[in-house]
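Lecture notes, unit on protein representations.

Consider one protein chain, 438 amino acids long.
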Amino acid sequence: MNESRPSSMASFWMPFTNNRDYKTDPRLLVSAEGMYYRDVDGRRILDGTAGLWCVPCGHAQPLITEAIATMAGQLDFAPTFQMGHPAAFDLAEDLMAFSGHKFSHVFYTSSGSEAVDTALKMALAYHKARGEGGRTRLIGRERSYHGVGFGGLTVGGIGPNRKQFGPLLPGADHLPHTHNLLKNAFSRGEPDFGVELADELERLVALHDASTIAAVIIEPVSGSTGVLVPPKGYLKRLREICDRHGILLIFDEVITGFGRLGTPFAADYFGVEPDLMTTAKGITNGAVPMGAVFSKRHIHDAFMDAPAGIELFHGYTYSGHPLACAAAQATLRVFREQGVMDNARAIQPYFEDALHALRGLPHVIDLRSIGIVAGIELEPIPAKPGARGYSALKKAFADGILIRTTGDIIALSPPLILERRHVDELFGKLATLLNNLD
């Protein structure tokens, strides 16, 4: 491994990055193990974000790295267009078991963005297969993130993600977000206010007519816009409205899937089952890019009634890549054998208390958490939105902790193997940072 500084930083156009600022003072990671990264200067950096929400089992898990190496020497690539390999089928069975058999089939992608676009296409094609081809409208939600494909951007609700790339797909609409600082600040778990916001879907049905609406897609907990937790009863009411009007409900669980809330999926935590569910990130513990769409049987079977031949004209070169399948199978084994979710549930109260101990520190206007994910909302600097959050990101790294910021919100989602000493280190350093933040 090359652990020296790169000879030049000019050629890499970095994603979702202030490239000009970053390259004046880069933050370079060269290795990782357990709860820590190590940077190019040899400093240990506590991972407060599970990489990018994607390493629930901790870094350099031996079972996962060994599985990838073994598969690389056995089967580096195999197509899944009119072909297959055993690991893809075995993993599908393992994933159905992990979901408690609430779903019947899984379709592989290479990322969460691809999983979202796949689920949206499935929803449109499902209605056509059933003779309701007029259902073409897709409903997203404000302050939501569904990846960077054109489908995901269309249903997503983050302004800067959308404005550079329009026009987007026609006909979409959006529900209002549920974040309410006035009524729900400093809540623990699901906030009390806002269930009635689900009824906005009835307004959209009245506006557009149910016969035109294919699907509603939401994140059970919005991660990339700052840990927005749904109000009590909100998701169940959305499910009821979708059922009443024949609209499919899609959960984007790219962030919340694979133990983040102490359950296999957020659907389990909230007791609400979607028709389709998108996943990625934690499915392979971040070790190999992979995504997947989980489907209820009625969705899959609607395609199987078509005339003989290809039922769904959709797929990716790397759907079910052998190395990704090996990594995912090993990740599920780590969950089973090492009690990853048991640990997450056990430490959750301590994590939550440590977060809320920050109340009253300078600039903190809200704290919210659910499972092992937390949001710290900071008061913006007048006329400089996002500047305080970005400053916190850089200061945190200098102090030896990796955090995620979105605007002026700090988002935390450490690996689920964390112990009390890691919680103490993370929030202790954050308290010092906040006390000294401009």
